[in-house]
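Okay, is this right?
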Amino acid sequence: MCLGIPGKVVDTFIEHDVLMGKVDFGGVFKQVCLNLTPDVEVGKYVIVHVGFALQVIDEAEAEKVFEFLQKIDELQELAVDEVDSNSEVAS
């Protein structure tokens, strides 16, 4: 099942002319593309699917969604270690 996961934007930055952010998913931090939510600010919550923030939501709604996903055990993908985007891939 494909789900959008709520996360809190903790930092924003530009990378290769693309608005990006560091997003906190309950203690797991991921780099996310914020180009589809250009007005998002640090401290706000977004729904993220496959690395893209799709919508800004309020904190109460984010908590409800996160609790539901925990309840149905759909947060496993957050436990997978993220590849460091700053490391180079060996050829």
Summary: The beta strands are 5-15, 18-25, 28-33, 45-49, 52-57. The domain at 5-74 is CATH 2.30.30.140 (SH3 type barrels.).
